[in-house]
Specification:
Elements: H1 4-16, H2 19-26, H3 30-44, E1 49-52, E2 55-58, H4 60-85, E3 92-99, H5 100-116, E4 121-128, E5 138-143, E6 152-165, H6 167-173, E7 187-190, H7 193-196, E8 198-202, E9 206-210, E10 215-219, H8 222-230, E11 236-239, H9 240-249, E12 255-257, E13 261-272, H10 279-290
Parallel strand pairs: 3-4, 3-5, 7-10
Antiparallel strand pairs: 1-2, 5-13, 6-11, 6-12, 6-13, 8-9, 8-13
């Protein structure tokens, strides 16, 4: 009888062709992954992998064994899911981690509607300013590039970024008429934004590398950035969808400028552990996918003017 963890390690290495890539895929130390491969080869009684140049490939025995490994692991998953589905209740504790910009409003509505259908469920929400290294018994919703992690990643949509200021600021200082004029206005940005540079994009005029003007105020949260811009401290790039939702609660707090110019798109990413997930986690992921706003996937219009809208979000939000 083969160890399922050893089979999973072998299948991952064959798929990725690299021990390093498989450590990220499985969330394991390289030493543990190598040990599982060695133990599997000892149990099988022959080598299964070859190192060719910079890639690891299966030998003849490995190719044959790989097909059976896939079948075994798939049957295990199906068996666990079938047994799990016999439990009608979604119970236990659900650990949810969410980027700070989503916690108020949309995400809290998603969680409330899910809990309304599952009375015995306990939920803990952790506000994230940094991407977590691990997630147990739950998921994480992240805004921005997630990079390489030990978690599975699923992009739920993207948020466009526009340039915004407060009405009072524009009355006092005027609105920039071109991207080049932004250099004459103070800037409110997020920590790290200037490190990689900012490229503005126009559908007809192409790209414009933005030389960030006077950085009067730098913060590490979208909510604090929004407060500073609304208070007239300067201009800044903000996700249009977040601005729209804020305008619904606080009409007139923002105005867009250069509405046909956009900053880099920000992906919204769902992260969750590898392997077989508990029923409560799978149920929440399914519910979350049904609550994705149309604007994230391009189905809700351009919204370049950032005016309040009603009825444009999913009913569960």
């Amino acid at each position: 009888m083969y160890d399922l963890q050893e089979l999973e390690a072998f299948v991952s290495v064959v798929r990725t062709g690299s021990l390093t890539a498989s450590t990220l895929d499985l969330g394991l130390p390289k030493s543990t992954l190598s040990r599982r491969i060695r133990q599997l080869e000892q149990n099988v009684g022959q080598p299964l992998l070859l190192r060719q140049s910079r890639k690891i490939v299966p030998n003849d025995a490995g190719r044959v064994f790989y097909r059976y490994c896939n079948d075994i692991l798939e049957l295990v998953v199906q068996g666990r899911e079938a047994l799990d589905e016999l439990k009608a209740e979604v119970t236990g504790k659900l650990e949810l981690r969410c980027h700070e910009s989503f916690v108020r409003g949309w995400f809290s509505g998603v969680v409330e509607s899910f809990m309304a259908d599952h009375d015995d469920l306990r939920v803990a929400i952790h506000t994230q300013r940094n991407l977590p290294e691990a997630v147990e018994d739950g998921v994480c919703i992240w805004l921005g590039e997630a990079g390489e992690t030990a978690l599975r990643q699923e992009v739920l949509g993207v948020l466009k970024q526009g340039i915004f200021g407060s009405p009072a600021y524009f009355r006092q200082h005027g609105k920039p008429a071109s991207p080049g004029e932004l250099a004459h206005h103070p800037w409110v940005d997020l920590l790290g934004m200037a490190d990689t540079g900012v490229i503005l994009h126009h559908s007809r005029q192409g790209n414009f590398p933005l030389s960030l003007p006077d950085r009067r105020f730098t913060v590490d949260q979208f909510n604090v950035q929004g407060d500073a811009i609304a208070a007239g401290r300067g201009l800044g790039l903000m996700p249009v969808w977040l601005v729209e939702r804020r305008l619904t609660a606080h009409p007139g707090s923002f105005q867009s400028c250069l509405p046909e110019w956009y900053g880099p798109d920000l992906p919204v990413t769902l992260l969750y552990p590898h392997g077989v997930l508990p029923r409560r986690v799978r149920a929440f992921i399914a519910h979350l996918r049904s609550c994705i706003p149309e604007e994230w996937t391009g189905g809700g219009g351009t919204a370049t003017q950032a005016v309040p809208k009603s009825g444009t979000h999913h009913s569960n939000t």
